[in-house]
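Thread: Newbie trying to understand structure tokens

Hi all, I'm a second-year student working on a class project, and my supervisor (Dr. K.) asked me to get a predicted structure for one chain before our next meeting. I've only ever worked with sequences, so writing a 3D structure as a token string is new to me. If someone could post the tokens and maybe explain what I'm looking at, I'd be very grateful. Here's the chain:
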Amino acid sequence: MRFLPQRRRFWELSEQEVLALAISSEEDDARIYRSYAGQLRTDYPDTAQIFDGMAREEDGHRKALIALHRKRFGEVIPLIRREHVAGYYTRRPVWLIENLGIERIREEAEAMEREAERFYVQAAKRTGDADTRKLLGDLAAAEAGHQTRAAELARAHLDAAALETENAQSKRQFLLTWVQPGLAGLMDGSVSTLAPIFATAFATQDTWTTFLVGLAASVGAGISMGFTEAASDDGALSGRGSPWKRGLASGVMTTLGGLGHALPYLITDFWTATALAIVVVFIELWAIVWIQNKFMDTPFFRATFQVVLGGALVFAAGVIIGGG
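---
Reply by user tm_fold:
Sure, no problem. This is what the structure looks like when written as tokens:
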């Protein structure tokens, strides 16, 4: 039986291999920054310029490292990358970051430079070889220089007005892609399931049957809302963002909205379960009012009238139908 070789530890690398690792890391980081720039260029052109500049800085450091390698070790650079070294800092795949918004991308870029600098500083402290220590110290200084250069580029390309505009665009995109569909789902799940759940509860006074009806209604409504939201708009013209994100937000929140007042019926005592379910309904409706007021700028009293009154009417309809 053959075993795959384990990754080597950083301390086992030769000076040439450390230099080769630094070269490949600089190349990867430049590619990541260019990916961020391409992702942001349409909606956030000023920030895209910053990442273009940071990618050029990484290219410059890579060229300097290659020149140093050529001088010390010759033309042939060993093939060694981050994934070949145990304990070496890693980069998250671009697709895990680029869909999380501009602020998350900015934070990730800052973390990239801090991680690289911290790694080289700690590695330099732990080596006993003077030449290796100097090399690692130089790499740490280079990464610190990247952070300084990033700040300079930000000041050059991203003034207060541009930053405010991009932040407003980011907030708007977050609202359109996540908050608005999620709020619609929460409202639908919380309100539309009130009548069937409480009608079943008062008609049967069987908590398990009521829970099953509530579970079925919540999951069914979540699937329906999710697919409806995803299929209604691909986001290309409306700018509302990815349809699967909106569908996910709507579907999950619809399901949670219904499950909130269905779960209390896992309690076997009917009146205890019903009292708890009513409390949960009250909390759900006021949560919807708060979200509308905070994120959608809906006046508080208007939101209260629309949501609480509507929910109360649906609840009453369920109780009357079930009790009749």
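A couple of things are worth pointing out once you decode it. The longest strand covers residues 8-9. The radius of gyration is 28 Å. Feel free to ask follow-ups in this thread.
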